[in-house]
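User: Hey, quick favor. My workstation is busy. Could you predict this chain's structure for me?
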Amino acid sequence: MKTRELTIPLSNVKLEGELFLPDDAAGLVIFAHGSGSSRHSPRNQFVAGRLRRAGLGTLLFDLLTVEEEQAEAYTRHLRFNIPFLAERLSAATRWVLDQATTRDVAAGYFGSSTGAAAALVAAANLRATINAVVSRGGRPDLAGDALLSMTAPTLLIVGGSDREVLQLNEDAYALLRCERALRIVPGASHLFEEEGALEIVADMAAEWFVQHFQPIPAS
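Assistant: No problem, here it is.
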């Protein structure tokens, strides 16, 4: 099965994405990228490929329109606006699960950088709709009080050499009350560019999602 290009119509914008969801997929992983990135991010595309081979569906989409990205490059007014990003992610999630799938499917978030904070806030708001969350080099500290109300099992993955972000993840981990795990990739930097580092991230993520996606019987 090939990925399917789709347009997600929200109240005032249309967002472009690509969906891969075979009939036998164990669940759907929705990617939330940080600012300056897109659905074409090589790192997220790599992780998505690994998840697909593990029997999972994937949705990669642009949280911002082209015009918003162009403005953001100069003003940087959206990259730390977590409530805005989380609301857009939530709305896109609702639309995809209601309109772009042909059956009930478990769903989870894979978030990077500030996208991880947006994923945590959206998951806290959507509650039972989201079955698991994985953060890659994320900024969960920016999720604020949402950390205290998280119910979805949450995995935080951080590079061992990414000292500042590691401390922020440790602080966020201490606040989470849901099932949680913090895993460190030794020697890896913020972008996991070292040989084999991103493979480790992808395998950790796949294992977490497969473990926490429970099959929903067909009606």
